[in-house]
Amino acid sequence: MDFRKIASRFLLGEDKSPSMASYIQTISEILESITPRSKTDSLRIETAKASLKEVRRRTRRLQERVTLLEEQVQILEESK
């Protein structure tokens, strides 16, 4: 596995896969459309929604970190 190639494709925006936000949104919509048939199902759906909320929060933090690191790389490249 060539990590340099993967990293350069990511930094150049050549990665064509959907964003994490779109995956999270899709899962959220699916969870909202499910009709629970029992109390257990309701609890499972609520747990999944809470977990998804945490995933959304952590994804946002990671994206902020990636943006900061990209800015730092750009500054380092400009200073060469």
Please supply descriptive tags for the structure shown above:
about 80 residues; 3 helices; mainly alpha; elongated
Strand content is under 5%
Helix count, DSSP H or I runs of 4 or more residues: 3
Q: Helix coverage percent of residues?
A: over 70%
Tell me the series of helices and strands, N- to C-terminal: HHH
Q: Count the domains.
A: 1
* N/C terminus separation: 29 Å
What is the general shape? elongated
Overall pLDDT score: 88
Oligomeric state of the chains in view: single chain
Low-confidence stretches: none
**Largest sheet, strands/sense/barrel:** none
Evaluate the radius of gyration. 18 Å
Class derived from helix and strand content: mainly alpha
Task: Count the beta strands.
Answer: 0
How is this structure best described in words?
This protein has one domain (3-78). α2 (20-33) packs antiparallel against α3 (39-78). The chain is elongated. The chain has 80 residues and is mostly helical. The model has no long low-confidence stretch (mean pLDDT 88). The longest helix is centred in the C-terminal third of the chain and has 40 residues, at 39-78. It is built from three helices and no strands.
Short summary of the structure?
With 80 residues, the protein is an all-alpha fold. The protein has helices spanning 3-11, 20-33, 39-78.
Task: Draw up the topology in text.
Layout: H1 3-11, H2 20-33, H3 39-78
Helix pairs in contact: 2-3
